[in-house]
Amino acid sequence: MALTFPNLSRSYDETGKRVRFSGYDGMFEVPFFIEIEALEKKMKHPARTEASYLAAFDDARAEIIVAAMAVYHRGGRTPFVLTASSF
């Protein structure tokens, strides 16, 4: 099956300083995180708030999904973590 991202939900993980989102490979949920440093690269004026990180995620969602698919297809263990060098 192909990896898909039908669920638009995402959440901010304050402790880990990252945003969590999920993909699906068939019926299996595949957890992903993107570090806030990666999101800050995409922000014009980093506000360093939960709302600003989630907005940055939403703005860059298409790019993030492409990067997530590449990381997933390389394989490895879950959860998959996207870093600033991932895209």
Explain the overall architecture.
This protein has 87 residues and is of the alpha+beta class. The protein has a single domain (3-86), classed as 2-Layer Sandwich (Double Stranded RNA Binding Domain), CATH 3.30.160. The chain is built from three helices and five strands; from the N terminus they run ββββαααβ. It has helices at residues 36-42, 50-59, 61-74; strands at residues 3-4, 10-13, 18-25, 28-35, 80-82. Strands 1, 2, 3, 4 and 5 form a five-stranded mixed beta sheet that branches. β3 and β4 (28-35) form a beta hairpin. The longest helix has 14 residues, at 61-74. It is globular and about 40 Å long. The two termini are 24 Å apart. The relative contact order is 0.22. This is DUF1488 domain-containing protein.
Task: Put the structure in a nutshell.
This protein has helices at 36-42, 50-59, 61-74; strands at 3-4, 10-13, 18-25, 28-35, 80-82. With 87 residues, it is of the alpha+beta class.
Topology overview:
Layout: E1 3-4, E2 10-13, E3 18-25, E4 28-35, H1 36-42, H2 50-59, H3 61-74, E5 80-82
Parallel strand pairs: 4-5
Antiparallel strand pairs: 1-3, 2-3, 3-4
User: Which architecture would the CATH scheme give at its second level?
Assistant: 2-Layer Sandwich
Radius of gyration: 12 Å
Q: At the third CATH level, what is the topology name?
A: Double Stranded RNA Binding Domain
Count of distinct structural domains: 1
Distance between the termini: 24 Å
Given the helix and strand composition, which structural class is it? alpha+beta
Q: Main β-sheet, in a few words?
A: 5 strands, mixed
CATH superfamily: Shew3726-like
What form results from the Cα inertia axes? globular
Relative strand content: 25-35%
User: What is the helix tally?
Assistant: 3
Report the order of strands and helices.
EEEEHHHE
Q: Could you estimate the helical fraction of the residues in percent? A: 25-40%
Overall mean pLDDT: 92
Which CATH C-level class is it?
Answer: Alpha Beta
- Poorly predicted ranges (pLDDT <50, ≥5 residues)? none
Number of strands: 5
Organism: Hoeflea poritis
Protein name: DUF1488 domain-containing protein
InterPro entries: DUF1488 (IPR009962)
Pfam family, one: DUF1488
